[in-house]
Amino acid sequence: MLKKIFVLLFISTLSIVKAQDNVPDLLSIPGPIEYDGTEYFLSWSKPMSKTLFRQQYLPIDERIEDFTQLLDFSFFNKEIEMELAVRQKVEGIQERGKKDKFAKVNVIESPDGAEYIVDYFISESPEKGDSYIEYNVYRFKNYTNGTDKSFLILAHAKRMYGDLKSSAKSLARQRDHLITTMIEFKIPEIKIAPQN
After folding, report:
1. DSSP characters for 27-62?
2. Per-residue pLDDT at 37 exceeds 70
3. What is the CATH number of domain 2-184?
4. Model pTM score
């Protein structure tokens, strides 16, 4: 079950439906969210299951079909084994690397072991549309509130379209800044909104 969830998280960035107006805020996060000097607006949300709630944010002038930056909150209202989640993410990228020569993945553990950062590159060369390189930074974090345990995967994706080799070099030069931004980002309080 857990493996299925992470497979869905991995591929869904590529297959999310078009951004909607009046998207319900399932996680009660006040918006817009400022991240690395850019304002992100809620563009998509969905309860993926009884325990997983996802929301995606885009800059105001972007669309999911051809975005250059995206924020994704995947919130589980149950305890998740963080090391297993990280390992599954890493293995997914390593598997993709068999067909995607740009797919590379790294893992950073916080000094206190309370959080992990997984960052990786992937590429796509669709039959229709432009080829792109995508750089993702995932932050894995457990929460404890009294006896309630929950788990968050916060992700930032940055895409560059066109020549894959030069785009990969450009994104690689931004890597340190993008990782530092994710580590230093103050995660807003998350509270699951009542479901209708």
Report:
1. T---SSEEETTEEEEEEEEEE-SSSEEEEEEEETT-
2. yes
3. 3.40.1000
4. 0.87
